[in-house]
Amino acid sequence: MELSESVMKGLQILADSNVIDLKSYAIFTEVAFNSLVSPRSESALGHPELKHIDQSTLKHCHTAATTFILEGVKQNADKSTISSCLEDLGFQTERVDIFYTSFQKNKQNVESLLSSIDICPPHITDAAWRLEYCIKNSHVHKVNQPSYLISLNTESGGCSSKIKFNCTMEQLQDLVGKMKDAAKSVERATQS
């Protein structure tokens, strides 16, 4: 598994028994998994058994652990992959076993969480626009500039919504140019 330097450092801190003892590590591991699968679970920062650990260290370790968990589930990592990765970061066998037990117990719930995330951005179903001419602004300065009020109707997963924004002529021309470039790129991608 490829992990960022920050995640590796956080996991190395988590592996250090001088920073987090074995009992606290077991509690921390359960809390990290619960924070992913249960939206109302207690955070690692608020857990009474973890109060003796520096809060910034705890936060760094929590971020690293949850990133590692998500990456492991995403890649459908097996025990040997997880074990070798954690052992390379300095985890003792007992800590690896605790982590993997929690991983196995919560893997299906984390998979469900990841599969529920919609990866498709909303697509535009309709567009409307209105030209507005601004004579003065709120500071009573003369502006004398046209602007466009754009309303885009979008749909994603059966839900529709509206996106509204205001732009100048230059911004609108830039938007149209980028949309044309995107359409050409999609067309080229589908032809090859």
Q: What string gives the helices and strands in order?
A: HHHHHEEEH
Largest sheet: 3 strands, antiparallel
In angstroms, what separates the terminal alpha carbons? 32 Å
For the secondary structure, the number of strands is 3
Gyration radius over CA: 25 Å
Low-confidence stretches: none
Class inferred from helices and paired strands: alpha+beta
Shape: elongated
| Share in β-strands | 15-25%
GO biological process, one term: sodium ion transport
Pfam families: COMM_domain (PF07258), COMM_HN (PF21672)
InterPro entries: COMM (IPR017920), COMMD3 (IPR037355)
Family: Belongs to the COMM domain-containing protein 3 family.
Description:
There is one protein chain. By secondary structure, the chain is of the alpha+beta class. The chain starts with a helix and ends with a helix. The longest helix has 23 residues, at 93-115. The protein has 2 domains: 5-115, no CATH class; 120-168, no CATH class. It has helices at 5-15, 22-37, 55-74, 79-88, 93-115, 169-191; strands at 123-136, 142-156, 159-167. This is COMM domain-containing protein 3. It comes from Danio rerio. InterPro entries: COMM (IPR017920), COMMD3 (IPR037355).
